[in-house]
Design goal:
elongated
Length: 95
């Protein structure tokens, strides 16, 4: 990556808090912010693209918990679903 010619500029607007967090993370690694983005963000973006190409879904911890709660919650059947279930039960008994 050191020999690659850097021809493209990336600009983004961030909150003061987000910018500070990125600056602190870069400082912890002894890097300039731009180098931090190249070393951390670029490989992460490439991994996400590769996973998406292979249909791998990655959820954050918050998203995992939300999915678990949604799957764990009892199903709320609609009137139509309840009617269908009643019909299917009665047909099963008569068969």
């Amino acid at each position: 990556m050191l020999d690659e010619k850097k021809e493209s500029v990336l600009q983004t607007r961030l909150s003061v808090e987000d910018k500070r967090a990125i600056q602190q993370a870069a400082a912890l690694r002894g890097l300039a912010v731009s180098e931090y983005v190249r070393q951390v963000l670029v490989p992460l973006a490439k991994r996400e693209v590769a996973r998406a190409e292979h249909a791998v879904i990655e959820l954050s911890a918050v998203e995992q918990l939300a999915l678990w709660h949604a799957l764990d919650a009892p199903a709320k059947l609609t009137k139509s679903q309840k009617s269908l279930a009643k019909l299917m039960r009665s047909k099963a008994r008569s068969a």
